[in-house]
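Researcher: I'm comparing several assemblies side by side, and this is the next one on my list. It has 594 residues spread over two chains. Same procedure as the others: predict the full complex and return the structure.
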Amino acid sequence: MAKEFSSWVADQQSRFEDVLRNQLPSAEVAPQRLHAAMRYSVLDGGKRVRPLLAFAAGELAGADVARVNYAAAAVELIHAYSLVHDDMPCMDDDVLRRGKPTCHVEYDEATALLVGDALQSLAFQFLSEQRLSDEPSKQLQMVKLLAVASGSRGMAGGQAIDLASVGKQLTLPELEQMHIHKTGALIRAAILLGAHCGNGLSDAQLDKLDRFGKLIGLAFQVVDDVLDCEADTATLGKTAGKDADNDKPTYVSLLGLQEAKAMAHRLHSEALESLSEFGESARRLRELADFIVLRKF
Amino acid sequence: MAKEFSSWVADQQSRFEDVLRNQLPSAEVAPQRLHAAMRYSVLDGGKRVRPLLAFAAGELAGADVARVNYAAAAVELIHAYSLVHDDMPCMDDDVLRRGKPTCHVEYDEATALLVGDALQSLAFQFLSEQRLSDEPSKQLQMVKLLAVASGSRGMAGGQAIDLASVGKQLTLPELEQMHIHKTGALIRAAILLGAHCGNGLSDAQLDKLDRFGKLIGLAFQVVDDVLDCEADTATLGKTAGKDADNDKPTYVSLLGLQEAKAMAHRLHSEALESLSEFGESARRLRELADFIVLRKF
């Protein structure tokens, strides 16, 4: 990754970590244990890919970064809640996440359940308590966008399709449907919410950004499957090979490793193409597309 | 209950059931099993106390009932999701709810987890996709109000306090703090959201309504504790005496049965007092206060 881009990423991550640290309820405030567990599950975690996409789309749309901070935090809280619930024994039963014990291991299952629930509520609080758009009616659309992306026809629906797919041989379109919902919906929401914090993008331009999000969301998942196949536990900070062990369909199991890599590269090219009209303003989005697809192989 | 009031209640319940039936995703739409489980968990259930309070407050504020329908549905979905998660093995481990197997028994735990998550998202979709107020900025406040009432400093926080209280002797103020969050926050939200769908209430009037909600929310919980102590499983449609078995603090265990009843009546009187300035427009709210407190004893 180019030095200039990596320093932009580091700056965004560091500023965003401060935003989360300041905006999450303090562990000193009652109910203390719940708030401590919420902070444990959100802070110091991950690469913040969705927030980075929101910041890049915000830059493209000339948005005030103070606004994008809240939109990005809302998306990241939805992502964080989904990980907490996904790790629970009744779902993936994972004990390790980002090199730390998962929330239900560090606390307990009931607390993990409430942490996820409360993080989702807080996401919608973040989207509604500050002015994020000059037009309140546009901000209501942002609330709706995140609600739909999170719900039964978005992320939660994708997880339901995932549950139903264990032990089944899916076709490529079926696998794609699952991922378009499970991870794609929230990645698209991150980009659109970042863009909505700015002004002046036409519907056609928003459609282009949405297409970029859709393609990069799929690429992200294909790369995840490739990494899960190749990496060892130490590098990933989670239990490697878990999907294969669980007999879950992946792009690698369906296409083979080489073809999955080729697919990731193809999605990457198409994603860049959808940004062609934006010129220099889409530079960060392009760099992020490279980052997502090229991160490890 | 007076015949005229009982027919108002029946009308609201029946119309509201249609709203839910039409607005919840069809079980024919993918992911079918998740959508079926969402409908199972929401439809044909309960007295719809929170929606009734929203409709009564909407009437007081001269709100269009088509708007209140969505606000009431949003609150009811939050309530329904909390029951689904609360019934799960890691929380209360209940197998029966409203005379039917609980969601995780009828489906499975992973589905119940996703049902709750997706219902919460849908609640915020309901609050944001239709015009519920003439001013979009006021509608954003409604989103924030429900988010705060649902989150770690509202309902989910109350459940965390509840978890922490098992096996402990709480003081009366501590018990009150738990219930103000666990059930009170959502009851207050129902009343305020109903009122916000209308126009022209002053902040002072909204404060009076909020005080009414707070008192009636507490009364509701005290009555629940009394009923739980007195009723048998058949009448309640849930396992009676469960709280006492679990060594959870209740108003009855803390105050004794007679004093708990007296407290419910005292809260009821204070609640009615807070409506005194509204005259005839608060009639339904008064009747609901009677209904909530006098339902069984």
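Model: For your comparison table: Residues 3-294 of chain A form a domain with the Farnesyl Diphosphate Synthase fold (CATH 1.10.600.10).
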